[in-house]
């Protein structure tokens, strides 16, 4: 056996992610609000960029949704990419990233920072703050600035806001927080007790019982009976009302009245702020009905646009710079031109994808969620000649406004449910909506079981098993039939 060295030459091809391509991919994923932030930063760093005054990205879709060329006008629009440096961005995207571009939707809400003077009471601050839709953190900081006089304690209190659970409870370990903040545990504990006195009632509670207790005390309901009831909350879902009433030393009727009071309390003080945020989400895309069919617009109120400051470019070109200055100017001008093209291509791609979604889901846009059809990313990508990854990046992060409300664009993609009558399949989202409708219209005290719901759905042509009904019901946060029956019983006792 001989050992030796050999020289082999192998030729292969590989794709290189240039900074421009990385930027273009990033822009495609961004929401309008995120894009606005990105452009604001870019304008600060690049003197050749300026805000464009007018924007006109829109698309009209004919009612005759069988037209295969529904997106042709988009393809034949004025050339968004200049002849110089022309690149097929939408398909260049496809070659580099996987279909799972998980950019989380960020919630948009109005923020009005409340400025409090020295002559304003804490009550006035709270009242004004509630009228303004600001974040929970801003709301708490406003109160902390008033209630905490010591600067060190104030800083610790503000830092502890970040340890809040989404529910509004303080579930973190005192020891861990003290180590993170580099302060004594006793100081963290002292600060926590003071934070529990802030609005909304129950904020910074360490558990559910304490959260409800704080509210009961404030409403002057709390007594020894409620104290025992709060310790026995885990028995209520099981329907052991007689046992709980004996523990509390009250009659069963009195127990139901106590439970009715507890049901008026807020177990998750922070949740109201999350709900407010949802209500004022700003859509990226607006679909409205027109005389010719459906009109698609990118939301002008949130959509930024960029343009080149050609006057400044011309002025710069008249100067004689040294080599370093010339290279810098050329680099910044090139970056500005590329960004403009990438933003326009992003907008064009979003409209193109949305147009095809509207075409395939016209039943939803006309009649609502019950008429949603099964659809996957490949259905759209094949129709418009783009890769699935491009469609995924567009739909994973955008909100769309329809006649039926604001919803994530990705919600139009749903698994199919077979038909029990060998007819057209049904979208899982449509099945969930049907389940929700059936439960909302059921007779009080006689809830529909999962078996009965499955039977009704099968009669309507939806081949759904009982376990699937149970899964969809859980996804809708709807309790089981036995739990709904106990809820109805509770309400009857409380109202009697």
Shape assignment: extended
Could you list the spans in which at least 5 consecutive residues all have pLDDT below 50? 64-132, 275-280
Secondary structure tally: strands? 9
Mean pLDDT: 75
- Please state how the strands of the largest beta sheet are arranged side by side: 2-4-3-6-7
Fraction of residues in H or I helices: 40-55%
Estimate nothing, just give the exact number of structural domains.
Answer: 3
First-last Cα distance: 99 Å
The largest sheet, given as strand count, sense and whether it forms a barrel, is: 5 strands, mixed
Radius of gyration from the CA trace? 30 Å
Structural class label: alpha+beta
Binned strand content: 5-15%
Number of helices: 23
Strand and helix map with partners:
Elements: H1 19-29, H2 32-45, E1 49-51, E2 58-62, H3 72-75, H4 89-92, H5 122-131, H6 136-147, H7 151-160, H8 174-181, H9 185-195, H10 208-218, H11 224-231, H12 241-248, H13 252-263, H14 271-279, E3 285-289, E4 293-298, E5 306-308, H15 310-317, H16 323-360, H17 362-367, H18 377-384, H19 388-395, E6 399-402, E7 405-408, E8 416-417, E9 426-427, H20 428-440, H21 450-459, H22 466-475, H23 481-495
Parallel strand pairs: 3-6
Antiparallel strand pairs: 1-5, 2-4, 3-4, 6-7, 8-9
């Amino acid at each position: 056996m001989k050992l030796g060295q050999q020289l082999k030459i192998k030729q292969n091809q590989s794709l290189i992610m240039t900074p421009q391509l990385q930027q273009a991919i990033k822009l495609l994923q961004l929401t309008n609000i995120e894009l606005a932030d990105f452009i604001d930063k870019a304008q600060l760093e690049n003197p050749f960029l300026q805000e464009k005054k007018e924007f006109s990205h829109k698309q009209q879709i004919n009612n005759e949704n069988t037209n295969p060329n529904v997106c042709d006008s988009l393809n034949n629009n004025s050339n968004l990419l200049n002849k110089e440096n022309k690149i097929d961005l939408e398909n260049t995207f496809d070659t580099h990233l996987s279909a799972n571009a998980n950019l989380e939707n960020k919630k948009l809400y109005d923020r009005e920072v409340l400025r409090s003077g020295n002559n304003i009471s804490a009550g006035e601050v709270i009242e004004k703050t509630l009228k303004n839709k600001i974040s929970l953190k801003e709301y708490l900081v406003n109160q902390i600035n008033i209630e905490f006089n010591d600067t060190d304690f104030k800083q610790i209190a503000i830092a502890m806001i970040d340890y809040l659970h989404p529910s509004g409870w303080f579930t973190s370990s005192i020891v861990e927080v003290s180590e993170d903040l580099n302060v004594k545990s006793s100081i963290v504990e002292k600060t926590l007790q003071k934070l529990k006195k802030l609005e909304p009632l129950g904020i910074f509670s360490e558990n559910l019982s304490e959260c409800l207790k704080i509210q009961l005390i404030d409403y002057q309901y709390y007594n020894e009976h409620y104290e025992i009831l709060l310790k026995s909350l885990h028995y209520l879902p099981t329907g052991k009302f007689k046992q709980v009433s004996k523990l509390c030393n009250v009659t069963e009727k009195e127990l139901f009245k106590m439970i009715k009071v507890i049901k008026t309390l807020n177990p998750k003080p922070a949740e109201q702020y999350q709900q407010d945020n949802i209500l004022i989400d700003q859509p990226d895309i607006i679909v409205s009905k027109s005389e010719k069919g459906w009109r698609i617009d990118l939301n002008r109120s949130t959509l930024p646009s960029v343009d080149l400051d050609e006057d400044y470019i011309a002025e710069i070109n008249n100067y004689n710079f040294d080599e370093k200055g010339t290279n810098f100017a050329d680099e910044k001008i090139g970056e500005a031109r590329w960004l403009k093209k990438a933003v326009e291509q992003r907008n064009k791609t979003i409209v193109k994808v949305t147009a095809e979604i509207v075409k395939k889901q016209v039943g939803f846009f006309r009649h609502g969620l019950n008429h949603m059809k099964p659809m996957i990313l490949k259905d759209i990508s094949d129709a418009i000649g783009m890769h699935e990854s491009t469609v995924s990046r567009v739909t994973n992060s955008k909100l769309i406004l329809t006649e039926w409300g604001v919803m994530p664009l990705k919600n139009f993609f749903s698994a199919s449910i077979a038909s029990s009558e060998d007819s057209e399949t049904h979208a899982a989202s449509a099945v969930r909506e049907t389940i929700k409708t059936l439960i909302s219209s059921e007779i009080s005290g006689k809830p529909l079981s999962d078996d009965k719901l499955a039977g009704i759905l099968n009669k309507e042509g939806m081949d759904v098993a009982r376990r699937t009904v149970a899964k969809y019901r859980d996804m809708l946060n709807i309790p089981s039939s036995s739990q709904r029956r106990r809820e109805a019983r509770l309400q009857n006792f409380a109202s009697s």
